[in-house]
Each structure stands twice: as structure tokens, then as C-alpha cells.
Amino acid sequence: MDDLKRLVDEMNQAYEDASFRFQVEMERMVQPLLPPKQENIVLLLIRVPSVTVSDLAARLGITKSAVSQTLDKMERGGWVKKRVNPANRREVRVSLGPKGEAFAERLRRFDQMMIETYYTRLDREDIKTVTRVFRQLHEWMSREQQERNRRNE
């Protein structure tokens, strides 16, 4: 177990070091940055252009009330748009607003710069391995969170 602890410590340190540098580059190119919860919503809406408030809450692992409060603030700032689904008036769909779209474009340019400057230096198999590991961790952590939520209901 000591060897596993050492490996995890090394992995965490490498992740933190890379995350710090990643954040520095991102701050340089993708201004303004948002608070983490709001940034997560924008990032999700970039991947899934229109979702319900319930979907957002489930994907982010927070309550619908917390999502609604955050969305209200983001809508006032022009980051997101909310609209009632005409087929189901109780359902509110969320998409990117003008500031969210502009942020998404800056993020696309940032991603392209990262690919051209850094990721091209990595072996593609290493990229596939890191992706597989993070997907696996995400899956296990999501299952664990769902189990905790079931136990707390």
C-alpha cells in the first residue's frame, strides 16, 4: 500500500503542476474566467447545447435549487439563456447566451493553441491512456456519489 500511496502522491503532484500551468495559460487567453460552478455550467453547455435544469443538476451533482440560483445570476449577466419548453411548460431548457458563446469561442481558440503548442509533443497512446484513466475515475466516482445520494434519501 505504501507504494500505491507514493504513486498516487506523485500523480497528484504532476496533476497539480500541470493544472497550475494550464490555468495560467487559460487565464492569459480566456478572460474573463468564471467562478468554478458557473464555469462548469458553461463547459457543459458547450458540449450539450441545450439541457434542462434537472439535467444540469444531475450532471453537476448539485440541487436543482442551487442550479436555478446560479442560472438566474448567469442569465442576468448574459452567460446563459433560459426558455420554457412549449411542449412541457414545467421544463426549462438552458443554452449559452451571448457572453457564453463568446467564452466558448475563446475556449476553442485556447484548445487549438494547446493542441498546436503542447499536445502535439505527446505520444497519442499516452493521451489515450490518460483519457481512459480519467473516464474510469469519473465513472467510479459518479457511481459512489449516486450510492451516497441513495443512502441519504
Automatic annotation (TrEMBL):
The keyword Amino-acid biosynthesis does not apply. Pfam families: MarR_2 (PF12802). Residues 1-139 form the HTH marR-type domain. It comes from the Bacteria. This is DNA-binding MarR family transcriptional regulator. One of its GO terms (molecular function) is DNA binding. InterPro entries: ArsR-like_HTH, HTH_MarR-typ, WH-like_DNA-bd_sf, WH_DNA-bd_sf. SMART domains: HTH_MARR. It comes from Desmospora profundinema. Keywords: DNA-binding, Transcription, Transcription regulation.
